[in-house]
Structures are given as C-alpha cells and as structure tokens.
Amino acid sequence: MRTISIAIDGPAGAGKSTIAKIVAKRININYLDTGAMYRAVALKALEMGLDCKDPEQIIPMLSSTNLSVSYERERQLVYVDGKDVTDLIRSPQVSIAASDIAVIPEVRMKLVEIQRELAQRYSLVVDGRDIGTYVLPNADKKFYLTATIDERARRRWLELIDRGYTLDINEIKKDLEKRDMNDMNRSFAPLRKAEDAILIDTTDKTIEEVVDEVCSHLSDIFA
Ligand code: DC
Fold first, then answer.
1. Cβ(175) – ligand 1 distance below 6 Å
2. pTM higher than 0.90, yes or no?
3. Could you tell me which residues are beta bridge partners of residue 9?
4. Which residues contact 200 (CB under 8 A, 6 or more apart)?
C-alpha cells in the first residue's frame, strides 16, 4: 500500500510540532517528530559526558546505540537502548546539544535511515529541518514554517515555563539564534526551504489559522 508523507520543516519555535500533531490527527495519520531523535542521541552523549561537537567521541557511541520510536495513544515515545527518554529530552541543554550533534553526518545518516524506513511503512506528517530537502524529497506535500525570532523566543519561553523551567527570554533568544546558525550553516543537509515547499509565516497567525492553511493544500492528496 502506498503511504502518504507530509513534510513540515522550519526553524525552532516556528510552530512545526504543534501544527504537525494537529494536522496528523485531522487526517488520521501518525506524526513523526524527527527532532526528538536528535535530542535522544544528544541526551545519551551528555549522560556519557561526551562532547557533542566531537565526531571522534560521538561516532563510536553511535554503533552501540539502539534508537526506536513508538506510539502510545497517539503520543510519540522515543527509546534509547530500551529506555523511554521522551520526557528527558526537552531541556534547554539538550536543545543545544541536539543542534551540535546534528552537524555530524554519521549521526544524520543513522537517523535518516530510520526516518525513511518509518515513512515507507506508515503514512506520516514529519516535522524536522531537512525532511523536504533531504529525507523525503518526494514527499506528497512540503511546508516550510517560519516566524520572527522574537515570536519564536516568546513561544519557547512559554513552552519552557509550562515544563517547569524559568529562563530569561533573552537567553532563549540567544539559544535560538545559535541553533539557527548551526542548523542553517552545517554542510550536510542544512535547514533550508525546499523549492517546492509552501512557505507559511506563522508570526501573526493562530494555531487554527495555520492548521487550516496547511489542510487547505492537502485536498489533492486525498482526491
Ligand atoms: O525540532 P527540535 O527543536 O526538537 O530539534 C532539535 C535539533 O535537532 C535542532 O536544533 C536541529 C536538529 N534536527 C535536525 O538537524 N534535523 C531534523 N530533521 C530535526 C532536528
């Protein structure tokens, strides 16, 4: 059976995961958060005391790392070496470490292989940085979500408060800028809009407006 893939790329805080989750539910397919996979590998490296920027430390760890994704009541769970790390990977430290580790081509190749296998087996809304450009260049529909840096920082700040972290919004803005730099300037599969992706600036839009806009482009897939 042919599976459907919808790619949603863009920088941190643009609203990708919120929108991807709702769209997936609306059209009754699964949602794959690829950032969670980079975060999970970064968490393991941090726990082992490794430097996420050093390929010589990270590559040996990769071959002995078993990463898997499963779904429980529509929620994506991420396991590293059999341990559920879903709730441990959201800290600001892991965000930066994930962006650093994602520069290493060997890390990307391992995770991209898993992502492509999942997309072959299941219809998915996939959120990430390189989904439309590299992971699934033949995705049925591609979107690139963006928003101003101030709005993205404000959203991340609210999200982190919700998770129990109190941080200065300017620190969050600096972290986002650092991640944008990392994600957009790495040589292997950097963050950029695919030529055939639909650009949506979410800055002044409500969640419902963005979801409706995305869904309005999907009707031909199901025709
Ligand atoms: O989407 P996120 O904030 O959870 O992603 C964390 C980091 O993982 C992000 O800064 C860059 C990296 N990432 C990536 O390089 N490619 C992806 N497809 C998804 C995430």
1. no
2. yes
3. 128, 144
4. 143, 144, 145, 146, 210, 213, 214
